[in-house]
Amino acid sequence: MDSKVPPYFDVLIERFRQQMVSRFVHLGHWDHPSPTGLDEPPQAGDIERAVERLNEVLVDMAGLQKAQRVLDVGCGFGATLQHINERFRHMWLAGVNIDPRQLAICRQLEPLNDNELQWVGADACHLPFAACSFDRIFCIEAMFHFTSRRTFFREAARLLRPGGVLVASDIVLTESAKQVEVPRFCIEAPLRDGYGPWPDFWGEDADHRQLGTAAGLRCTCLVDATPHTLPSHRFTVPRDSDVLRDPGDPLMRAAMMLKWLHGKGHIQYVYMRFDKPHSDDARCGDACA
Which positions are annotated as active-site residues? Predict the structure, then answer.
């Protein structure tokens, strides 16, 4: 396995092969979460519906139309492109991932509706496509793993056609996390061990609006989805796991830390849309010539 692949994918890949999990590898979205988010006991089927709902929210945000070229960066097991493949026609759909094992799972999908599917091994900060290649780019719950959010925004801006759209979700530690009266490494170490790489852990370069503006993109929607994603931790961490039964399990330590940070409001989960201005028409024409 490439050292840049988060360790939790070892477990997810094995569970997928055993048909224990779906293709979705992100948190879920609840339209009407309870005020605390974590109190209600988990119900059968809840997480499956919630992860599909998060995907639907972001796909709807992109405003897809038929016959578009779509890129999913950090495509996981291909669930987002599978969703588009089933619902739209004449699409050219490309997924990028740094992990060949995940791409092998993606390649099990067959194109439908006169669509084309392509799966590419590449780094999100060095994407092997020509300028102005895509109408829509997705990046769902993967950006915090990238070497640089700033570089990724520049790459997305380069690849989008004028009028194109980037839709993403991201996890960022809030200012309150920096004020918690425990050494920072106590928060950082378990998350890096279980969910790393997380290069910009404390979000020093994670102002998404500013990053979009610097790349030439206009933020047209930014939603704080923190309460809507919080109930996911009822499933990532069982209710009886308040005491860490296996202190040697880095994935459980990471899951418990993320649950604690999310529940205390020390992380923010955001959905966002950035549009590339039509004024870039001439620049794109030169780049593609």
Answer: 141
